[in-house]
Design goal:
Layout (H helix, E strand, L loop, with lengths): L4 H25 L1 E6 L13 E8 L5 E5 L7 E7 L2 E2 L15 E5 L4 E7 L10 E10 L14 E2 L3 E3 L3 E5 L2 H6 L1 H8 L1 E6 L9 E10 L5 E5 L3 E6 L18 E5 L4 E9 L9 E9 L9 E2 L3 E5 L3 H12 L9 H8 L5 H6 L7 H19 L4 E9 L5 E3 L2 H4 L8 H10 L1 H4 L1 E9 L5 H11 L11 E2 L11 E4 L8 E8 L2 E8 L22 E3 L2 H8 L9 E5 L5 H8 L8 E6 L2
Parallel strand pairs: 3-9, 21-23, 23-24, 25-30, 26-29, 29-30
Antiparallel strand pairs: 1-2, 2-7, 3-6, 4-5, 4-8, 8-10, 8-11, 12-13, 13-17, 14-16, 15-18, 18-19, 18-20, 21-22, 24-25, 26-27, 27-28
């Protein structure tokens, strides 16, 4: 009996589905993954805990894939405690993602790829955590460069759940007495309670054999510096190493050794000012004896008004470049935190350089609130209809003594830019009724600072609601141009005349500019289309436009006059018509 068409189709579908399932299963099983955390006597939150991804190539062919570390692109690490998932660190705040690269897994072999738990997460408290990973070898948009003939592993592999027990710094310090008894070594730390703002200070660590048997350790390799913040977490950015001549030391019962060491201010530089704790940690012994912390000491990383006054005095006598002037570098790094101390610091009037620097730093501390990051800062200048003008930022404006002119404010702003790593420029922001007289009055005070600015003084002449980025540079003198637009006041309103300088047949490859007094013929422009047609001439190379405006031109009139040209250009020079 012949099988029916329906039965054949069903049989074919089952065979195809079975083949597809087998292929998919094989693809998923071609690489196995495992999370490996090396065993340790104790892991304290703040340790650099290694986390290895172990991939096993179960196929008979070499497989290429993209190792992305902790980018959260190929890899996912889920960490939970008591069913609650711990939020991961955002990828941009880790380092391993910078080393993404193509790798190859040999057939039948396992290979470990290292990262650190701190690349993925900050554990919040003492406890046992569950770690589960998933890794996709190659994503659709990735094209790893692997040797010719090497297949790519495009499937995903999931790890079994691993467990990791950690202890918080606070709980670790609570175990100090028990750990001391088990290890047989007591660590007694003494030293200053305030970390030096510049230079270094001396600390002393007394290591006592409190057991009944000899105890051996290596100095300084077995010891590390731990700095703990007010929240009880280790400041991992603070270097942990101790300087000193290497020695392998054996202490007999009851014997002690007093080791002195220095800690330099640069160890804490960049960390927030405030109150910390400091202790010395002795690593686990080779025989498995537990690690031991010393007694913690309070550590003040703070600065008083008197400290600031001393720093300013030192900074004023050194280089103006922070890298070659440690006092100045410190003051610049902590400008915002030191603002209260800068306000109350007192200096003798005879120290003129120091007083001048103190005034700059006081202003820079206020400016940093408006421009917290180095880079470009464009200051708005408000132009009122009354003819006056002022700095647009009210917080910065209030930082100047009463009676300080806007021009002097601008000069002082430019003077403090090096303390903040800023590149500055000024944008004139006219009131709707402000006239060109006000624009050019402000420009006359700001343009002398041009050599220290990153862009010409310019006028915001376009409505802020538009997406147009056209810039109107305010010039005190005429500039080279191949298009000149002259605005004239008439009973009918503001009229436009234009002149265009086209290249000669002998100079078609270059831009030809007007020479002084070369405006022989001005064409009266009656519409925006006509003006646009003039500057859209194919023979006109790279339009450089200069606009002359009457002293009583309002912002609305200028916007209307320039509106047609933004379809062709994005920058013009504005000059006051004589």
């Amino acid at each position: 009996m012949k099988p029916s068409l329906t039965s054949l189709l069903l049989l074919g579908g089952l065979i195809l589905q079975s083949a597809f399932s087998t292929s998919l299963f094989a693809a998923e099983r071609e690489v196995g993954a495992e999370l490996v955390v090396p065993p340790a006597e104790t892991y304290v939150i703040g340790d650099r805990i290694p986390l290895y991804w172990r991939f096993t190539n179960r196929s008979t062919d070499a497989l290429g894939f993209m190792w992305e570390g902790c980018c959260r692109v190929n890899g996912r690490l889920t960490i939970s405690k008591d069913g609650n998932v711990v939020a991961p660190i955002p990828p941009g705040q880790t380092l391993a993602h910078m080393f993404a690269k193509a790798e190859v897994l040999a057939p039948g072999k396992s290979r470990d790829f290292d990262s650190f738990l701190s690349d993925w997460v900050v554990l919040p408290e003492t406890g046992t955590y569950e770690l589960h990973g998933r890794y996709t070898g190659v994503l659709d948009f990735q094209k790893p460069q692997v040797p010719r003939g090497v297949e790519l592993w495009r499937a995903a592999a999931e790890t079994a759940t691993n467990r990791l027990s950690v202890i918080s710094v606070t709980d670790y310090l609570k175990e100090r007495e028990v750990r001391t008894q088990k290890r047989g070594l007591t660590l007694a730390l003494s030293g200053p309670l305030k970390f030096p703002l510049l230079g270094s200070a001396d600390w002393s660590l007394n290591i006592i054999n409190s057991s009944t048997a000899p105890r051996t350790f290596r100095w300084p390799d077995d010891f590390s510096v731990w700095v703990i913040n007010a929240q009880g977490f280790r400041e991992t950015a603070v270097p942990s190493d101790l300087d000193g001549e290497y020695a392998e030391v054996t202490l007999q019962p009851g014997q002690h050794l007093n080791k002195h060491f220095k800690l330099d201010y640069s160890r804490m530089e960049g960390e927030p000012l405030g109150r910390y704790q400091l202790f010395i940690d002795l690593k686990t012994a080779a025989d498995g004896s537990p690690r031991v912390p010393s007694n913690p000491l309070p550590l003040l990383w703070e600065s008083s008004a008197a400290d600031v006054a001393q720093l300013v005095t030192k900074a004023a006598s050194g280089s103006k470049a922070g890298l070659r002037n440690p006092a100045l570098k410190f003051l610049r790094v902590y400008l915002r935190e030191l603002e209260p101390q800068l306000k109350t610091a007192q200096l003798p009037a005879t120290e003129t350089k120091a007083v001048e620097l103190l005034d700059e730093l006081r202003l820079a501390a206020v400016v940093k609130a408006s421009a917290p990051q180095p880079g470009r800062k464009d200051w708005g200048i408000q132009l009122m209809a009354s003819g006056t003008w002022q700095l647009g930022d009210p917080q910065v404006r209030a930082a100047f003594p009463a009676g300080t002119t806007p021009a002097n404010q601008a000069q002082q702003l430019v003077n403090v830019r090096r303390h903040l790593g800023l590149e500055m420029s000024f944008t004139l922001q006219p009131d709707a009724q402000a006239t060109a007289a006000t624009w050019f009055t402000a420009a006359g005070a700001l343009i002398p600072l041009q050599s220290e600015l990153t862009a010409p003084v310019h006028l915001r002449a376009l409505p802020q609601s538009t997406n147009n980025t056209g810039i109107v540079n305010v010039r005190l003198e005429a500039t080279p141009a191949n298009v000149v637009i002259l605005l004239r006041r008439s009973p009918e309103g503001l009229q436009k005349q234009a002149a265009v300088k086209l290249p000669t047949p002998q100079s078609t490859a270059t831009t030809t500019l007007f020479a002084a007094g070369d405006l022989k013929s001005m064409v009266t422009v009656t519409s925006g289309e006509q003006l646009l047609e003039l500057i859209s001439n194919p023979a006109l190379r790279a339009p450089q436009i200069q606009v002359f405006c009457p002293v009583d031109t309002t912002l609305a009139e200028l916007q209307q006059a320039l509106a047609p040209i933004w379809a062709k250009v994005n920058q013009v020079d504005l000059v006051l018509a004589q």
